[in-house]
Design brief:
Layout lengths: L4 H6 L2 E7 L6 H10 L9 H7 L5 H12 L5 H17 L2 E8 L1 H5 L5 H19 L2 E9 L4 H11 L8 E5 L11 H9 L3 E6 L5 H11 L3 E4 L7 H10 L2 E4 L1 H6 L11 H6 L3 E4 L4 H4 L3 H12 L3 H14 L4 H17 L1
Parallel strand pairs: 1-2, 2-3, 3-4, 4-5, 5-6, 6-7, 7-8
The structure holds adenine (ADE) and zinc ion.
Amino acid sequence: MNITREFIDKMPKAELHLHIEGSFEPELMFEIARRNQINIPYKNIDEVKAAYNFNNLQEFLDIYYAGANVLQTERDFYDLTWAYLQHIHKENVLHTEIFFDPQTHTDRGISFDTVIKGIHKALEDGKKQFGISYRLIMSFLRHLSEAEAFKTLEQALPYSSWITGVGLDSSEVGNPPSKFEKVFEIARQAGFKVVAHAGEEGPAEYVWEALNLLQIDRLDHGNRSLEDEKLVKTLVDKQMALTVCPLSNLKLKVVKDLKEHPLKTMLNKGLKATVNSDDPAYFGGYMNDNFWEITQALNLTKDDLYRLTRNAFEASFANDDRKKEMIRQLDDYFNKS
Ligand code: ADE
Ligand code: ZN
């Protein structure tokens, strides 16, 4: 069967790799900047979009952190999160696990409470109004020190019932997982799930470190794992899920062309790959665009799509009943179409 856009759009899905600050659409950025009387270095939305041309991860991060500067109040974080939820509700996303980067905000004087209260309130409203279940993952910025990550972990402890896991993001090369071994150990002991970006731009060695030193429950990106056969075998044996982000990989030049994207190879090797949007406002697409573009580029089959979406439900941090319910909806969808 030829996969249609409609089939992808209506497919029940879970998103496991989404930076809430990366869902900040230029329209909302202008609105919040006006409200907070902040100048942004763009005249209009076209100018913003023209600036979204990246040669690597760092070029993107510089613009992404600049955009996040506009966010100041609890309402701003609520509006940001609410806009994302409205978007994914239309895309049949049943469950989402979102990253937030507290240090991006606390380092410029915005309190941890302001950030998390706005995000959490919107997530609760999304659950009530749209039935979207969620998990929140706090990411440490790896270009900062481990001592600063410890400070952030301490700020998070009063909110530990709102935070399911900790992650590691930002500039990968030169900031290996080993730099954060101790803080992740304490986070694990405190009951947090553990994930980390590794093997996006950084080498397979960083993925080994994420596995062995951080003891991750899930691997974010992981593309460069394919350079090491022994690592691939280990990931397959552990049934470690990879949160793969096709349009992000294209926009950040992790791959030259989506036709060269390793997603199908990952599935063929038995890796538990999933599809995610990463920073949809910056990379030109939310979940459905990611699924659609990669399906076309790699000629993915209905079996591949089933595998990818089922992997996401299984690898999510949702409770077992919710997982079962979502997988039931997925099976119904594939059985009737
Ligand atoms: N922060 C937001 N998006 C990111 C990505 N793709 N890699 C590392 N850090 C990020
Ligand atoms: Zn990411």
